[in-house]
């Protein structure tokens, strides 16, 4: 019972720090968010932050992980609503691009994330995403929906294109116009992967 209570307290402390940090990082940004303000907002001490996350950068990485997990759930829901796996894949790519308009995702994932954590290609969650995408593409190749191309190569190209397009949308003077242009171009690019009738 005591062990369970301690585990619940640890989880509650982590959740409080992540929630406070997410609010601050999403509104004023990583650089402007002070550790004292973060811990005060969570009703905790700086020692709690150090104990659970090591430092501010570790807390930021935990916020990135939380947002990424939520984005994944949303994208899977978009894919699940589609009439078939290929449409689901295409729709989830378009939905990812649309997320680049959301202020929290813009600031935390697309602006501060690379500045604080370095090149996203080195983030573990990015590699997991590529691996899952390659598995889905491999299935579409096996079913004859896509041309017989290397699924990992295709996944890396698509992932790179969506990442770069999302950055463009997030930084564009007119994000809506950039989203429309990127979605049209991306849809045309994806159609090029379809297996041509014999």
From TrEMBL:
UniProt KW keywords: DNA-binding
PANTHER family for this protein: HTH-TYPE TRANSCRIPTIONAL REGULATOR RUTR, HTH-TYPE TRANSCRIPTIONAL REGULATOR UIDR
A UniProt-annotated Pfam family: TetR_C_41
Signal peptide boundaries: none
UniProt DNA-binding region: 34-53
Gene Ontology MF terms: DNA-binding transcription factor activity; transcription cis-regulatory region binding
The protein's name in its UniProt record: TetR family transcriptional regulator
All copies of domain HTH tetR-type, residue ranges: 11-71
